[in-house]
Amino acid sequence: MARPTVVAGNWKMHGSRDTARALARAVVQGVGDATGLEVLLCPPFVHLLDVLEETAESPVQVGAQNVCDQPEGAFTGEVSVAMLAELGCSHAIIGHSERRHVYGESDELIERKFALLHQSTQQGDPDAPRAILCVGETLEEREAGRTLDVIHRQLQPARSFPDAFPRALIAYEPVWAIGTGVAATPDMAQEVHAAIRTHLEQEFGTAAQDTVVLYGGSVKAANASELFSMPDIDGGLVGGASLKADEFLSICQAVRK
Ligand code: PEP
Q1: Atom 4 of ligand 1 has which residue's CA nearest to it?
Q2: Annotated catalytic sites, by residue?
């Protein structure tokens, strides 16, 4: 099975209802029928419904930037897997570096989110969002030669759920490349992506070849084609550059070349 190329926009905490709608509309128009490409928009929770309405008649998918590690209950400020599924969210990002490093999310917490997303599908909700599990090392960890140790540790949540792949996706996002304007070089990223796939192969067997592994960290129109042409890079998780329709559409265009 050939892996699809996926371009996902992580809008983080930006925009208003009006700008979210306008951006979604422009992406829908620009992407057209999107052959050979999956496009995903991840707006803030409060803009999900607006963006879902704007994308309803198009192949553009809509995902959440986060999800609660508990199915329901007294968890003030949280949003559950079932709530996202009911809205029609196709994906949920978990373990983003801003969640890990700014909000102190632990590997254990992220593992519970991964488990819930997986189990919801298993327990008869075929529309439960797919996990996009983010992994990536800090600059300090890279310089200490610990990149792969860190990534193997962050992939640990998946170990208990070998059949979660290829439904679940992985995003390799080196922390030092996120929002800095300094992307990993294509060779650097490919090296880590290949190591991730080898690790998946060892742990989960054949599903590894079908699992989408995205690169994230200062992807823009100017570097997207080179990054996406690497054999183990199956598209991008795009932050800043996803907030401008033209730039984001040029990144999508890079896949088609
Ligand atoms: C991200 O937030 O996932 C990201 C990769 O951000 P940026 O593209 O702005 O580096």
Answers
A1: 239
A2: 96, 173
**The two structure tokens encoding residue 13:** 């905490």
Helices (H), 80-179: 81-87, 97-101, 107-122, 139-143, 147-154, 156-159
**Residue 221 CB neighbours (<10 A):** 17
CA 31 to chain centroid, in Å, comes to 19
3-state secondary structure of 4: coil
Q: Across 173-254, where does the E strand assignment appear?
A: 213-216, 235-238
Amino acid at 213: V
Residues 47-62: tens digit of each pLDDT: 999 999 999 999 999 9
Q: Which of 101, 173, 175, 242 to mutate to test the pocket of ligand 1 (most atoms within 8 A of CB)?
A: 173
Average pLDDT over residues 151-155: 94
